[in-house]
Amino acid sequence: MTGLVGTDPEPFSTKSCEGCSFRLGSTRRYKDRRSGEWRDAPTVWITVRAYRGLAKNMAASLRKGDPVTVTGRMVMDSWQGEDGTNRSALVLEARTAGHDLAYGVSSFSRLREKQDPEEEIHATGPDGGTAEDFAVPEELEPQGQPA
Predict the structure, then answer these.
(1) CATH superfamily, domain at 2-29+39-140
(2) For the chain, where are the E strands, in sequence order?
(3) Where are the domains of the chain?
(4) How does pLDDT run across 115-131, given as a tens digit for each residue?
(5) Tens of pLDDT along 46-92?
């Protein structure tokens, strides 16, 4: 999914790891056949969530308004609202993320092993860890569905 970062990444903690989330707004453009002008379709807003190394790198690299490309899997978050009604929302669990270079330039800095991304100002991507580093924490896996 591509779009603009709508909120600065917010760090959070689970029982087993650190994470971060932000809102992503994606607006499709299309050419109106009648007028020949370019128009914007309604903006789609979705929460993006990441864990472990990717979360730290996203928090250190992304800011509100940045154009980004995020890949991952869509999951359904379910909870009970304050009024007792069941609620749900789609969430994009990020596997990779980076600046959309169609709109600007970026600088990449590979992190040294065990280096905190806060020490590396220009970090813009995963720190090269194993796939396990980017796996969803067990307590957040959907019940009854394979990982």
Answers:
(1) Nucleic acid-binding proteins (2.40.50.140)
(2) 2-5, 10-13, 18-26, 29-31, 38-40, 44-51, 67-80, 86-99
(3) 2-29+39-140
(4) 555 544 433 344 444 44
(5) 999 999 999 999 999 999 999 999 999 999 999 999 999 999 999 99
